[in-house]
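Appendix B, record 7
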Amino acid sequence: MMLAPSPLEWVTVKTTLPAVPYPLLASRPDIRTERLVLRRTLESDLEGWHALRLQPEVMKWTSQGRPDKDLEWSRERFVKRLAPAGDARYEFIICLAETGEMIGTGGCYVVTGQFGWPVIGYMLRREFWGKGYATEFVNGFLEAWWALPRADVDVKVERSTVERAAEDGLARECIVAVTLDSNRASQNVLAKCKLQLVKVWAAADLRDPTQTAVLARICLWDARSISQPHLNRTRWTPRGFHSPPSPPASSDRHGSQVATPSDPSTKPSSRETPDSQLSITGAITTISFISLPAIKAVPEASGQVWTEMYARGASSMPKIGAAVAVSYLYAAYDTHSRGGRWEGFAVAAACVASMVPFTLIVMKGTNDKLHKAAKDGVKGTDPHMASAMNTWGVLNFTRGLLPFAGAILGARALLADAL
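Structure tokens (predicted):
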């Protein structure tokens, strides 16, 4: 039974999402199921893609609502699936494994959709309906989707999509499908793949703005977090900053990370902080030498991907840095109370804390330039955009040296305290 339409409500949650950038199209592996191969889009797929979008039965369920006008109309949309713009999507061409024939397309076409979460969608040629291919595609895609590396994020999402962990309130990650209320065939496919209907609402019909459409939101939460909470969850965040590995942890049944100190006390351990700062240094400098060159390799989407990377880091790294700084400050207090040399721990805390003013003051001008360029749609090939990217890489590397200095000072203080 369908739910009654209700207003949209918004809430900001802490959760995870796939780390960006995604694997580049040139090296993105195929996904294989029993009868299908999901592969990257090739230039030679244009005619098959156009033929798919000429079928009225297929296009009636899209926001366009009608077949493409002509081949050029299709081509304008098709090129966004090719590198470099297509690198920012996690989409695939759906082919029969036995013959290689293209029968459709599908995947995550929006990283953070209208409701905050990534959105899954698919289209299959009419003659391949009713054969179980849609269900097989969704299951195969989701298996690969949940296996992507993860990053911790704060996102604004529609309230009906939120499932929180029992212990710490961390929202379980979600992927969303949106269908017309009348598209029961797709809803049945999604139900077979264990997605749940959570919301029905009325909105302007994009196919005809004078009309109102009733839409249904169908969600799937990260099922791995129940049985395999550690699977492919990375604690580093390619978004402006990178997060260090968390302390040894156990997981509740929702996959939330719960600290498990070896000592019964919950006091911070000064012996963990040098390792944590070295992890921060390695993660931050990795952006300059690995992530940033990868972003510049896709100039069509450089601004978009950089903005996504920056926002994720900005939402998490200050908290990580604060936790490490507090650990050092506690070590300084504890050492001082025992009559030891505490100054090294205090200076180490200052080093890691200094990353925040360095970002807000020294890097602000470059950050503002890149944000504006991304908002204006400036491509990575633009000389000013490329120069700003290069400057940001140097500044980001310099920022990474701050926790490195803190780690050295903290290690020296730790050795002095142990002697």
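Remarks on this record: The first helix runs from residue 46 to 52. The two ends are 70 Å apart (CA to CA).
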